[in-house]
Amino acid sequence: MSGVKKQNSAAQAWLIMYNVAMTAGWSFIGIGVVGHFYKHGTYKGLYDQVEKQLLFFQTSAILEIFHAMFGLVRSNVMLTTLQVFSRVGIVWGVIQPVVQVHDKEGIPMVLIAWTITEIIRYLFYTFVLLGVTPKVMLWLRYTLFIVLYPLGVTGELLSLYYSLPHVQNSGLYSLYLPNNLNFSFNYYYVLLGMFPVYVIFFPQLYFHMFAQRKKSLSPPAKKQE
Ligand SMILES: CCCCCCCCCCCCC[C@@H](O)CC(=O)SCCNC(=O)CCNC(=O)[C@H](O)C(C)(C)COP(=O)(O)OP(=O)(O)OC[C@H]1O[C@@H](n2cnc3c(N)ncnc32)[C@H](O)[C@@H]1OP(=O)(O)O
After folding, report:
1. Is residue 219 reached through a cis peptide bond, with omega within 30 degrees of 0 on the bond before it?
2. How does pLDDT run across 184-220, given as a tens digit for each residue?
3. Which end of the chain is more exposed for a tag (fewer CB within 10 A), N or C?
């Protein structure tokens, strides 16, 4: 049975609509990525090609925190929040405002990792809700993360790393003394602080997915005769 907690038909209909829209959105991004490589043979210019769609569909994933919080699905609230905010933070707090990151190698890494993951994940949820779960989808959902998670994290950290000198030089989102509020804030140090945060929390998400994999792909135990 699906992870939708109570079989409330309005919740079920909403989740089907959400998953179908997200599958379509990420497929649109995927087509943009493949089309860009096919046409230009380089990742330069790739971000600008998919920026609007990426901002929209990645931000929409915030709804998943509410799905988990209000019991529409059985996802872990803390892990879902970490997962969603790491990406929303990278997209809105690093990649979008720091144009110098757009043509760096972190971009194709995150786009490939996120796009493949999300097309499969949302398609998988849709199938589960419709009561049909092709074995191949189950296997892909709980196997591809083994390589896509490290690829995505590497791309996210590379993007963070490349943004640092530009954030420091431009004073992006920072407030320096003296000022009327007598308060200072340095965004550069917030971004620096994200590296240890990733080191602490990424293993939790990664090993959680291995536990989910074991639960979902292990054959059911044979009944004792
Ligand atoms: C400002 C604060 C900033 C904090 C920053 C902190 C940074 C920390 C470091 C984080 C590193 C993240 C790196 C990452 O961004 C890189 C990548 O993602 S690369 C790509 C690879 N990624 C993945 O494969 C992960 C994909 N994500 C997930 O799978 C989930 O988000 C995750 C939270 C990891 C898993 O959560 P959980 O196991 O709890 O949930 P499930 O999805 O398995 O679902 C549980 C049950 O609920 C059902 N469900 C869930 N959602 C839906 C839905 N939309 N529709 C229908 N049903 C749904 C699901 O089927 C399960 O059902 P059941 O229990 O019956 O199996």
Report:
1. no
2. 999 999 999 999 999 999 999 999 999 999 999 987 7
3. C
Q: State how many domains the chain has.
A: 1
Q: How confident is the model at residue 1 (pLDDT cuts 50, 70, 90)?
A: very low
**Position 70 in a domain:** yes
- Let me know if 64 is a catalytic residue: no
Residue indicated by tokens 């909403």: 14
The answer to whether residue 200 is domain-embedded is: yes
Does 86 fall in a domain? yes
What three-state secondary structure class fits 222?
coil
Burial class (CB in 10 A: 0-12, 13-18, 19+), 50: buried
For residue 171, the CA-to-ligand 1 centroid distance in Å is: 33
Q: How far apart are CA 38 and CA 174, in angstroms?
A: 40
User: Euclidean distance between the first and final Cα of the chain, in Å?
Assistant: 26
**How much is the pTM?**
0.94
In a domain, 3, yes or no: no
For residue 188, count other CB atoms closer than 10 A to its CB.
19
DSSP class of residue 100? G
Query: Which atom belonging to ligand 1 lies closest to the Cα atom of 87?
Result: 15
Catalytic residue among 18, 142, 156, 162: 156
Q: Which atom of ligand 1 is nearest to the CA of 79?
A: 33
Which pLDDT tens digit goes with each residue over 57-114? 999 999 999 999 999 999 999 999 999 999 999 999 999 999 999 999 999 999 999 9
3-state secondary structure of 89: helix
Q: How far apart are CA 15 and CA 21, in angstroms?
A: 10
